[in-house]
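ok here's the first one, seq then struct tokens
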Amino acid sequence: MDKAGIQNALVAVGLSRLVQDIDRITQVSIRLSTTPVDESALKTGVSKLGGQPDLPADVRWPQWKGLPQSFIAQIRLDEVRQYDISNLLPNSGMLWFFYDARQETYGDNPADKGGWHVFFRDDDPSRLKLQRTPFPATLPESGRFKACSVNFSNEVTISQQPQLEISGLAWTDADQEVYDKALETLITPADRAAPHHRLLGIPDTIQDDMRQQCQLVSNGVTDTNDPRANELSKGALDWQLLLQVDSDEPAGMHWASAGMIYYWIKRADLQAHRFDHTWLVLQSD
């Protein structure tokens, strides 16, 4: 998907008025294409999905409710630097992502905090003395994922609800229906069948927009009628997708059967490299 193709699709369905705001409703993401591999063939410290993490000696495998968490992915940041068009990520170092091995953390409750972990080290990976860390004995088999190598590419992503991005946009249910049909034309059958893993960009939302949920629930609010909700909601658009991980059959990842997990971060925390300040949401059909 590219910006020119999106513009053409919008014009074709009579939504040319959105073209002037194309930079508000689109963001460049880093697409992760995965291939199952024999993990012994992967060098320590390269980017990968699943398998066993390559951890610094001082990082302990995170726990949640008495069980080790599942290892999701590690990203070597110098491998993605050329694809980070907006320079949002650190230029070097490593990110590691973990998640609840029971897959029962949905991010809709303040008590979910701690059901995932994101670790960051800003040193050159060659100086981190990384160790391939075996699965803990108590980690369930269902929480042990198959190693996949990762290739990166750029892909333009587009909001599924443009009225959330463009203040004051006159938008009807009929407009949304036409818009949805335009988006359908942008996805090829082959791409539709492939897992949609991505860093940054706009998520492939399965249910509702997640930014208000992140803003409210991370601040201890679950009811929009709460007196604090209105003021807090003003900061919803401060949240940025960090990593989206799709269900991936070859990797053995099934999020509530066929859903996705999304790691979110506030832009200020991303800029400050505070990757421990994230919120996770699981969505599925």
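and now the second one, same deal
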Amino acid sequence: MSKRTPGLQFDKENQQWSIDKRIKGFGRLRQRLRSRTVEEAEIEFHHIISAIHNNEDKDPQSSMTFYQAGIKYIKESTKKSLDRDVVTLKACHPFLKDLTLNQVHNDSLQPFIAARKKAGIRSGTVNRDIAVIRSILRLAANKWRTIDGKPFLIAPPLFDTLNWEDKADPFPINKKEQLKFFRLLPKHLRRMAFFAVNTGLREQGVCWLRWDWELEIPELNTSIFVIPGKKREYADGTWIGEKNKENQVVVLNCVAKSLIEVQRRNRENNCPYVFPYRGKRIGGMNNTGWQDAWTKAGFPLCKEICKGPHNLKHTFGRRLRNAGVSLETRKVLLHHKNGDITTHYSPAEVSELLTASEKVTKSISTTLIK
């Protein structure tokens, strides 16, 4: 803190000057400065304080703090991933809450970014955090208006895209590794893993799979599951929909079909879920049972390698490719967005997908399913 100027502070760790001062008729002012020396900081300090006293800084951009904008965003948003956005806002709260909207920019975001990196958060996750902040500032500039009809922000700032080259690599498993790993999983997780590695479903797709999503295909003596692409409310929670917002068709090769029949026989108390645990939906597969089995199987534990259930989707995709399945068919089976292919399949189209899916079942032991 400057001894000559009460309210002017210096952060030694970040080498940055800032103001923390209560001003009569205005309230508490907290603002980071661009100055590098004490002399520059004092000049900038007095300029800002003078502007407040002279009512020169009463434009809409200085009337809303980022904290207030965040509250408005949460109240008005209808995003299905809003809960995840709230995680971002909580994380950036200590750094941005008292900044006015025009004070939130690429430079003022650096302490937040540095803290996330120090905490071991990957750059992809921080980019998502920045995207949430950017969305709020865009709303303040393009949609939200004051009583006088003025935008709260003249224009949203530009932010850097981060790339710390820290993205975890997938770890597809071969059939020998699969047998070793699946043996170590608890029975309920083992069945879920078998289903994921034979359908390419994402983790939450397996956890949420419901019997009322099943559709019979009598012409083929089988069934498929049609997973809703959009948000749906259920008694025990909200299915947020598929990542690409399209309905996803899940075909059942012989392994997946045998799993469905096992689960159908073991269905308890009319539970709506295909893979419940003790009659309730499982929140996620990457729990202690999964992690213990992963470690005991001798799989990589380094942070550069993905260690979660998403590896089963990568495994399914690799096996399809190795079996010579075309890229177009792989996209459908892996539930990737593909505007050229409809999700309203005829029996003939389902048959084609089934034939491709069956190619990954060769030399797969199903004794662990029972």
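notes on #2: The CA atoms of residues 184 and 293 lie 5 Å apart. The chain has three domains: 8-58, 62-142, 175-369.
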